[in-house]
């Protein structure tokens, strides 16, 4: 009989939720395996708790990079390597996916993930004092705070005012269905502290449960099987951990890598690494991301300090002329990243994110070695439709910076994307300067059994295999129309509630 009822691989946004929920039953033995460290819940280092530092410490990062594609160069793809995962290094935007996202999932035949069903899990996961009780949760572990206009920097307030002057509606609550427009962000930040899941879901009380074991420094190599049943995971170095149920929550890249090394993936990918096939599946073939462009502008030194905080606290979330009804397909955010090349010594950045991306990338192994970084061919903006929408969104950003009162905070453009005027100039600058919003999804997407893109069913179970579940952003059928972290947390709540664990 296995030592553990559940073995969870990865203690990030999803894994921490799963460990907390599944260990609520004192009769259930839960093992959580994490490669990164597990700081005390109240003593995370500043580079992790400070919400104004985003992915700023290489000690807690997997050091992944994209492969170049066309004229788009390689760029970093930060992923958190610590208990709390990428929720410990992200921008801490706490906005839910809108109805349109879940309607798209349902259109693929997926059940159990409607907007109404997900609204329940969002509320259950959330703890906030803000907003309507019918929308927001009061007793969950995901601590959410609504930024006020007063908390914005002067430049961020000017951004909101400029968008309103252009005719965009004001949004009071981006998590309501009246979410198209401009306003302060909803964030999982309290007094400047990024509230990651290692703090909120795995606090002292949870970590002290006798039936929850947390092992750090464990780099999981593969899942082992007895026939079609998952029975254990093996770590680099040979350590073996048996469980009645194996759950992979190592993230969009980590879970895909473990699946491939376990013999679950495309036949050609397994063959080139000499991996014995266990289940042929399209793992890694539908990698999705949000293209993300940062354009720099010099600012007057008497209006913008070099280290303004909060770094990001407002956005315009709207739709291009090419969008479907309800498809809020871009976001524009004023941010205070340092711009060393500014002649005034200070500046602001205007970020543009395309949120409804049609481009598809590919995740591949570079080696059978679990310590080797994967090949991440994200192929952002490779679909012409994505590029057309991105150009339109960047033109909106250009109009914003030329509109009072935001125009008073701009002295000169500093990047090609800020200076470009023609479509040809914009296209070249966007392709050269864009990276991603760090919202990778869909390397093991959910779907129906006859869906050629699907790796997992609507519960995260890998098709053709028993007692192996994936529970993180890898299983999203498509990338949501907004930041992914709150949706990953809510999905983990749903999967934990539905997971049946019985020892063989």
Detailed description of the structure:
This protein is of the alpha/beta class and 504 residues long. It has a domain at 4-45 and 198-286 and 441-498: 3-Layer(bba) Sandwich (FAD/NAD(P)-binding domain). Helices cover 23% and strands 20% of the residues. The chain has helices spanning 13-22, 46-49, 99-107, 115-125, 154-165, 197-200, 204-207, 251-261, 267-272, 384-401, 416-419, 423-433, 485-498, and strands at 4-9, 30-34, 126-127, 142-143, 145-146, 181-184, 186-187, 189-190, 193-194, 212-216, 220-226, 229-235, 240-248, 264-265, 279-280, 291-298, 314-318, 330-335, 347-354, 362-364, 375-377, 412-413, 435-436, 468-470. Strands 1, 2, 10, 11, 12, 13 and 24 form a 7-stranded mixed beta sheet that branches. Strands 6, 16, 17, 18, 19, 22 and 23 form a 7-stranded antiparallel beta sheet that branches. Strands 3-4 form a two-stranded parallel sheet. A hairpin with a 2-residue loop joins strand 11 and strand 12 (229-235). The termini are close together. The mean pLDDT is 98.
């Amino acid at each position: 009989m296995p030592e553990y009822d559940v073995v969870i691989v990865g203690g990030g946004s999803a894994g921490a939720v799963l460990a907390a929920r599944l260990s609520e039953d004192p009769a259930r033995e839960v093992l959580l395996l994490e490669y990164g460290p597990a700081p005390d819940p109240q003593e995370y280092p500043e580079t992790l708790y400070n919400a104004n530092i985003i992915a700023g410490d290489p000690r807690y990062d997997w050091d992944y990079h994209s492969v170049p594609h066309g004229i788009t160069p390689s760029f970093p793809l930060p992923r958190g390597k610590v208990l709390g995962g990428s929720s410990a290094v992200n921008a801490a935007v706490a906005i839910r996916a809108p109805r349109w996202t879940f309607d798209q999932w349902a259109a693929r035949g997926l059940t159990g993930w409607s907007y109404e069903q997900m609204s329940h899990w969002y509320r259950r996961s959330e703890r906030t004092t803000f907003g309507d009780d019918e929308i927001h949760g009061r007793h969950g572990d995901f601590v959410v705070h609504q930024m006020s206009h007063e908390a914005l920097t002067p430049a961020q307030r000017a951004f909101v005012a400029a968008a309103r002057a252009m005719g965009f509606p004001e949004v009071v609550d981006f998590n309501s269905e009246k979410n198209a427009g401009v306003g302060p962000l909803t964030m999982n930040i309290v007094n400047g502290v990024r509230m990651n899941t290692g703090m909120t879901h795995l606090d002292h009380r949870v970590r002290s449960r006798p039936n929850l074991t947390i092992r750090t420094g464990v780099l999981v190599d593969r899942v082992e099987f007895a026939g079609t049943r998952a029975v254990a995971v093996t770590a680099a170095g040979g350590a073996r951990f048996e469980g009645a149920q194996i759950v992979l929550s190592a993230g969009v890249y980590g879970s895909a890598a473990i699946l491939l090394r376990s013999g679950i993936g495309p036949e050609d990918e397994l063959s080139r690494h000499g991996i014995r096939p266990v289940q042929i599946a399209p793992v890694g073939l539908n990698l999705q991301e949000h293209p993300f462009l940062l354009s720099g502008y010099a600012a007057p030194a008497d209006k913008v300090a070099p280290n303004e905080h909060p770094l990001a606290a407002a956005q315009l979330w709207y739709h291009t002329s090419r969008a479907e009804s309800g498809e809020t397909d871009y976001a524009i955010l004023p941010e205070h990243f340092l711009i060393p090349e500014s002649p005034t010594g200070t500046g602001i950045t205007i970020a543009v994110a395309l949120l409804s991306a049609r481009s598809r990338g590919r995740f591949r192994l570079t080696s059978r070695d679990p310590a080797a970084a994967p090949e991440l061919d994200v192929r952002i903006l490779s679909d012409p439709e994505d590029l057309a929408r991105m150009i339109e969104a960047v033109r909106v950003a250009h109009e914003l910076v030329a509109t009072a009162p935001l125009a008073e905070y701009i002295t000169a453009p500093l990047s090609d994307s800020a200076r470009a005027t023609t479509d040809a100039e914009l296209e070249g600058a966007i392709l050269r300067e864009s990276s991603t919003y760090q919202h990778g999804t869909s390397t093991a997407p959910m779907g129906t059994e006859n869906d050629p893109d699907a790796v997992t069913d609507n519960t995260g179970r890998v098709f053709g295999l028993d007692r192996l579940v994936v529970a993180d952003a890898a299983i999203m059928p498509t990338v949501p129309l907004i930041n992914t972290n709150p949706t990953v947390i809510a999905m983990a709540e749903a999967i934990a509630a539905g997971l049946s664990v019985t020892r063989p």
